[in-house]
């Protein structure tokens, strides 16, 4: 399923590309269906619990309570969770193509890193968010990223079913500032889609977009706590779901209130599943942007290194777009910055 290899253009490249069959595609679709369905059910879990009580479905009520307890009680990874995580990785088989690439050994959070014992911690900044962070979830389930704390919306993190799924399949965390600081003080490798709900709102099948111009906070934290930042771009994420366009100011204001403002449709046969487009997904993890340690960075210093990050993200997009789109189509592709 996976292999390390050398590449003259980038030095070290680690790729994964699963073998496919009709049976594997069905399995992958089932896992992805569970992932998205649990996402929806978790958000609506209070309503579901209320309805089970109203209709005297006490066995279902007890099951919801049991799953909620399992989501919140402390427990360690074990053989069962490792097997469950392997099942979750079957989502890769659903796509017609699926690959993730690390440009350099220094982009790895594992022992393959050239300075594994002395390296600075890594902050993986993943774009675009998309409707359901499918590129993010590919890395989340990767055995190469088991030590990385994948941070996402506190609303989702406290939702019991989705929280339990993520605890079983990977290493989840909260994306609020207090939690991020606590992880960083422990020098834990972190992954985060910095574009957030705004980037999800802007997703379009016709444009590659990143909501990054006003997202300086993660750079400030990286400077303060001694992190190098790895830009990550998930090519094909925007092709997995159609999303309604327009009314940007209104919808982005809803995002400021912590509300998603998307209306998406995926696979024609099952709209909550992503489209199986021919290009698939291609997740490129760039070379780390090396940052200095600045305990109290000024606005100017944060802006300076934020600009360097944007330049690194654009370089990543430009250098890998040909691998995804093909050389001819890639000539017309640009990454829009919002």
Automatic annotation (TrEMBL):
Entry EC number(s): 2.3.1.-
GO aspect biological process, one term: glycerol metabolic process
GO cellular component: endoplasmic reticulum membrane
Subcellular compartments: Endoplasmic reticulum membrane
Gene Ontology molecular function, alphabetical: diacylglycerol O-acyltransferase activity
UniProt KW keywords: Acyltransferase, Endoplasmic reticulum, Glycerol metabolism, Lipid biosynthesis, Lipid metabolism, Membrane, Transferase, Transmembrane, Transmembrane helix
Pathway(s) served: Glycerolipid metabolism; triacylglycerol biosynthesis; Lipid metabolism
Pfam families assigned to the protein according to its UniProt record, in alphabetical order: DAGAT (PF03982)
Enzyme class: transferase
Keyword Membrane: yes
Transmembrane annotation, as ranges: 26-51, 58-75
KW Repressor (keyword) present: no
Membrane topology summary: Multi-pass membrane protein
Homology family: Belongs to the diacylglycerol acyltransferase family.
Protein name in UniProt: Acyltransferase
Organism per entry: Chaetoceros tenuissimus
Lineage: Eukaryota, Sar, Stramenopiles, Ochrophyta, Bacillariophyta
């Amino acid at each position: 399923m996976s292999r390390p290899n050398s590449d003259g253009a980038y030095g070290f490249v680690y790729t994964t590309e699963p073998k496919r069959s009709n049976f594997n595609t069905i399995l992958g679709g089932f896992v992805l269906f569970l992932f998205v369905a649990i996402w929806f059910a978790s958000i609506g879990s209070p309503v579901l619990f209320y309805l089970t009580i109203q209709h005297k479905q006490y066995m279902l009520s007890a099951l919801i309570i049991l799953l909620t307890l399992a989501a919140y009680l402390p427990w360690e990874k074990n053989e069962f969770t490792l097997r469950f995580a392997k099942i979750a990785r079957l989502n890769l088989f659903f796509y017609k193509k699926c690959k993730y690439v690390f440009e350099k050994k220094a982009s790895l959070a594992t022992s393959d890193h050239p300075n594994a014992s002395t390296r600075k911690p890594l902050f993986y900044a993943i774009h675009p968010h998309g409707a359901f962070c499918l590129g993010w979830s590919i890395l989340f389930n990767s055995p190469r990223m088991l030590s990385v704390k994948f941070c996402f919306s506190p609303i989702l993190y406290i939702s019991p079913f989705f929280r339990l799924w993520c605890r079983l399949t990977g290493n989840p965390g909260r994306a609020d500032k207090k939690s991020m600081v606590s992880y960083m003080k422990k020098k834990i490798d972190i992954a985060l889609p910095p574009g957030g709900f705004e980037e999800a709102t802007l997703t379009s099948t016709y444009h590659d977009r990143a909501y990054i111009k006003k997202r300086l906070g993660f750079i400030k934290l990286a400077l303060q706590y001694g992190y190098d930042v790895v830009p990550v771009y998930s090519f094909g994420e925007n092709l997995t779901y159609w999303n309604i366009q327009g009314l940007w100011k209104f919808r982005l204001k809803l995002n400021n209130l912590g509300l998603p403002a998307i209306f998406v449709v995926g696979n024609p046969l099952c709209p909550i599943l992503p489209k199986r487009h021919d290009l698939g997904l291609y997740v490129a993890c760039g070379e780390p942007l090396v940052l200095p340690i600045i305990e109290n960075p000024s606005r100017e210093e944060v802006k300076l290194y934020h600009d360097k990050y944007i330049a690194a993200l654009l370089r990543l997009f430009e250098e890998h777009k040909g691998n995804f789109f093909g050389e001819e189509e890639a000539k017309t592709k640009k990454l829009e910055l919002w």
